[in-house]
């Protein structure tokens, strides 16, 4: 059967299931949880609260097969240049030894390069942690500032927060925004004499990072003079550029064009994380991702977590037409996980043309957004429960607290967290119908006159889909598996939509236009040939400027 005929079958399923509710589906089949959930080790993916059944899953799996997911997975793992618009291989799996052994790119064995650089940057991280690599005046670095943006920031930021209980190295700070407030507020309380600055940029041309680097270098030079260079390290694929800034090669850690920025946390871009948690825990993080790679590459599609996760997303996006997904970790340490997944998913699959440049007839990557629970419950969950749009939710939660060892109440807090996430998923799926709401109010002693105006606002339609990821504990190893799970989900969806998930041309135009505008903003001049909206804004800004 062709891909198109699988889509047609799936549309029929969507029509069939639109006649029913999650309440009905659970009543008809008490085995939904067993049938519509899968595990990789302790990590459970429960999609039983989706508007889905086994027949739908079977046809989604057929679609995945017809789209060539298995063949493309092989191409990915074996280093084929699947990023066709940039003619690059896509080998983030090789960074954690999860790609095929002996993969070569342009005649070079990838694993050899990976191991050499990994050894170097992990050793450097250890030397900063122990003080073997010390400041210009011989003291142990107390603070490390990472300058980078996008993939050169979000991964280390997300993972450093996620692994806070393992953070026993120097304090870490991250500066990404070109807004001077970010770097000024960060540097102000720090002592340059004990601060190491890492400049992280794949290209080493990104305007924000280069401007922040200039400011940080001036700050270092002001107190350290020509010793400032000792307080600099860099991570980049552009070694010519790092040399032109006179950053000593011994503190420059490379990576390669076959690592996408948003897939680079496993490379030397992870240096700040390695400084925070140390070599052993960083290796555990890599090992977790490798375990997910092995699962992704070997588990049958019907039990394959990334594949199932991707297919549930396809069902929501293309068959039920939901444009967004709320990603809600019930895990404060994952507070930046939604932001990380936003870049991973939206920069990868936010595309409208196929890999050969034809328009795509259907919808592609959804808008991903989210905040940690339970906070989210007290802000936007009103809309998720009763708003006019259906917003599917991906919940994440650990069975155990991550910091129980040093905090007596940790278990009690975790009980509350677990209770809340389960309650929210129940409320979304099953709601509370008006008859029950009325009966409850009557039992509480309200009169029919009091009940009438309150019954509708207190009614929950339910029938709102959610999935849940449950893991034993948020350890470095688990975090590695979770991130790799999301990476592979994005890959599978990209294959089904027939897009190149590994380029990002959509961010280029804005950069070009900003370059063209810079001198006008600096000189406070409004060019004659500019559009009237920009002219109006520039005039207004110029009037307000001091
Ligand atoms: O502008 C988008 C982008 O290219 C991202 O893909 C990337 O992660 C980020 O900018 C930072 O790029 P670099 O690491 O080259 O500074």
Explain this structure:
- It is a single chain.
- With 546 residues, this protein is an alpha/beta fold.
- It has three domains: 3-66 and 299-430 and 464-503, Glucose-6-phosphate isomerase like protein, domain 1 (Rossmann fold); 104-277, Rossmann fold, CATH 3.40.50.10490; 507-544.
- 48% of the residues lie in helices and 11% in strands.
- It has helices at 3-18, 22-28, 32-35, 54-66, 69-77, 110-130, 154-162, 180-187, 207-224, 239-244, 271-298, 305-319, 337-349, 381-386, 410-430, 434-443, 448-455, 476-497, 508-523, 532-544, and strands spanning 37-40, 43-46, 104-105, 108-109, 143-147, 171-175, 195-200, 232-236, 252-254, 324-330, 367-369, 393-398, 466-471.
- Bound molecules: 6-O-phosphono-beta-D-fructofuranose.
- Residues 149-152, 201-203, 206, 209, 261-262, 347, 504, 507 line the site of 6-O-phosphono-beta-D-fructofuranose.
CATH class of the largest domain: Alpha Beta
Please name the CATH topology of the largest domain: Rossmann fold
CATH architecture of the largest domain: 3-Layer(aba) Sandwich
Query: What oligomeric state best describes the polypeptide chains here?
Result: single chain
Uncertain segments:
none
Total strand segments: 13
Order the strands across the largest sheet as they lie in space. Answer: 1-2-13-12-10-11
Count of helix runs: 20
Shape: globular
Largest sheet: 6 strands, mixed
Q: Which band does the percent of strand residues land in? A: 5-15%
């Amino acid at each position: 059967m062709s891909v198109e005929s699988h889509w047609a079958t799936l549309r029929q399923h969507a029509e069939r299931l639109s006649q029913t509710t999650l309440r009905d589906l659970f009543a008809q089949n008490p085995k939904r949880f067993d049938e519509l959930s899968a595990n990789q080790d302790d990590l459970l993916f429960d999609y039983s609260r989706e508007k889905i059944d086994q027949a739908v899953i079977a046809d989604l799996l057929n679609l995945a097969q017809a789209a060539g997911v298995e063949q493309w997975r092989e191409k990915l793992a074996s280093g084929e240049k699947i990023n066709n618009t940039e003619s690059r291989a896509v080998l983030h799996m090789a960074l954690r030894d999860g790609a095929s052994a002996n993969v070569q790119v342009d005649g070079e064995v990838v694993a050899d390069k990976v191991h050499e650089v990994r050894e170097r940057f992990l050793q450097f991280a250890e030397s900063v942690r122990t003080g073997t690599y010390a400041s210009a005046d011989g003291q142990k670095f107390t603070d490390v500032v990472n300058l980078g943006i996008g993939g050169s920031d979000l991964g280390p930021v997300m993972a450093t927060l996620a692994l806070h209980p393992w953070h026993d190295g120097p304090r870490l700070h991250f500066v990404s925004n070109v807004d001077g407030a970010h770097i000024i507020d960060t540097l102000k309380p720090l002592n340059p004499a004990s601060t190491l600055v890492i400049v992280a940029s794949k290209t080493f041309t990104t305007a924000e990072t280069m401007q922040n680097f200039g400011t940080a270098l001036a700050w270092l030079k002001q107190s350290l003079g020509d010793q400032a260079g000792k307080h600099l390290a860099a991570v980049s694929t552009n070694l010519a550029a790092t040399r032109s800034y006179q950053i000593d090669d011994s503190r420059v850690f490379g990576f390669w064009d076959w690592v996408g920025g948003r897939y680079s946390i496993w490379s030397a871009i992870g240096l700040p994380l390695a400084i925070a948690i140390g070599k052993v825990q960083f290796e555990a993080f890599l090992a977790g991702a490798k375990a997910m790679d092995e699962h992704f590459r070997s588990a049958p599609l019907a039990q394959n977590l990334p594949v199932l996760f991707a297919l549930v997303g396809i069902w929501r996006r293309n068959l039920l037409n939901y444009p967004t997904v709320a990603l809600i970790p019930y895990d404060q340490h994952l507070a930046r996980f939604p932001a990380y997944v936003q870049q991973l998913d939206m920069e990868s699959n936010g595309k409208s043309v196929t890999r050969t440049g034809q328009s795509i007839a259907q919808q592609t990557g959804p808008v991903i957004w989210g905040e940690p629970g339970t906070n989210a419950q007290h802000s936007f969950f009103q809309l998720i429960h009763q708003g006019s749009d259906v917003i599917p939710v991906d919940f994440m939660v650990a069975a155990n607290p991550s910091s129980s060892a040093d905090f007596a109440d940790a278990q009690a807090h975790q009980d509350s967290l677990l209770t809340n996430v389960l309650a929210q998923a129940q409320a979304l799926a099953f709601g509370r119908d008006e008859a029950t709401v009325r009966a409850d109010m009557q039992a509480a002693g309200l009169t029919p006159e009091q009940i009438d105006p309150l019954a509708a606002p207190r009614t929950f339609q339910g029938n709102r889909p959610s999935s849940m990821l449950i893991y034993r504990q948020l350890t470095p190893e688990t975090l590695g598996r979770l991130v790799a799970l999301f990476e592979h989900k994005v890959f599978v969806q990209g294959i089904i939509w027939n897009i190149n998930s590994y380029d990002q041309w959509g961010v280029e135009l804005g950069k070009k236009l900003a370059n063209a505008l810079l001198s006008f903003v600096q000189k406070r001049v409004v060019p004659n040939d500019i559009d009237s909206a920009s002219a109006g804004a520039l005039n207004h800004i110029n009037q307000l400027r001091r």
